[in-house]
Write a structure and sequence with these properties.
Blueprint lengths: L5 E5 L10 H9 L3 E5 L6 H12 L6 E7 H11 L5 E9 L8 H5 L7 H4 E5 L5 E5 L1 H8 L5 H10 L3 E2 H5 L14 E6 L7 H11 L3 E5 L6 H4 L1 H19 L1
Parallel strand pairs: 1-2, 1-3, 3-4, 4-8, 8-9
Antiparallel strand pairs: 5-6, 6-7
Length: 243
């Protein structure tokens, strides 16, 4: 295996690539190269194609870290042949099976308060853009982040289409059945209940599970050390397998 793996970071709905700033800084301190993609948030199929187009021709081994809905996209992209992927780190991320959507997984266990926090903008072709209302963002997404950081995040968030959240995974075999996985999530995630994260990690046979006490849905922002550690664990595992 080459000595220059690339970590691809994929944000989810209601955030942007800056979500990964703290994680990128910590990976750099370990001489790990990382690239945060701008997830289009339009549909699972087209978003996954974007990821394949962006990094699919790389001759470097890849480790993906995916947040929330980004986990659905990563699962689809890897299953459809995205490069040499050695591991996926689901960071408060969704890991669907074939035929499951983000909506299905968020509602699998009680506890999500996302619906009450959403705003909606009608688009053409009977599509709606969904976004978290700025007045609800801090409590809903980033309760363990300081108010100023949450304020900026609320006003720089990127909306997701209702189609993207309701579109099911089409891949015949989800990536987590063939690629090693790690899960990092907060015990106080109000968007995707911790019970859902635990269940997905168990189903996937995750090699590492880190439930961060008191952490919110924005665990990559509030606990970048914990997230970076999971990514480094994935990199270390991939190097061991390659050797």
């Amino acid at each position: 295996m080459p000595e220059n793996p690339l970590v691809v970071l994929l944000h989810g709905a209601f955030t942007d690539s800056a979500h990964w700033s703290g994680v990128i800084a910590r990976l750099r301190a370990h001489d790990v190269d990382a690239l945060a993609l701008a997830n289009p948030l339009r549909s699972v199929v087209t978003d996954a194609q974007y990821v394949r187009d962006a990094v699919g021709d790389s001759d470097r081994p890849l480790v993906l870290a995916a947040h929330a809905y980004g986990g659905v996209v990563a699962t689809e992209a890897v299953a459809e042949g995205l490069g040499d992927v050695r591991g996926i780190v689901y960071v408060a991320g969704l890991a669907p099976d074939t035929g499951e959507s983000a909506v299905d997984l968020v509602g699998r266990f009680p506890g999500s308060t996302l619906d009450a926090a959403l705003g909606r903008t009608s688009l053409v072709d009977d599509l709606d853009d969904l976004w978290v209302r700025p007045d609800a963002y801090h409590a809903q997404v980033a309760a363990d982040v300081d108010e100023q950081t949450a304020y900026v995040a609320a006003r720089t968030q990127r909306p997701v289409t209702d189609v993207a959240l309701s579109q099911v995974l089409l891949a015949g075999t989800p990536a987590w059945k063939t690629v090693p996985s790690w899960f990092v999530f907060g015990s106080e995630d109000r968007t995707i209940p911790a019970a859902t994260h635990r269940w997905m990690a168990g189903r996937a046979g995750a090699r590492g599970v880190d439930e961060v006490p008191g952490a919110s849905h924005a665990v990559a922002v509030s606990e970048p050390d914990r997230v970076a550690r999971a990514v480094l664990d994935a990199l270390g595992s991939s190097r061991a397998v390659a050797a």
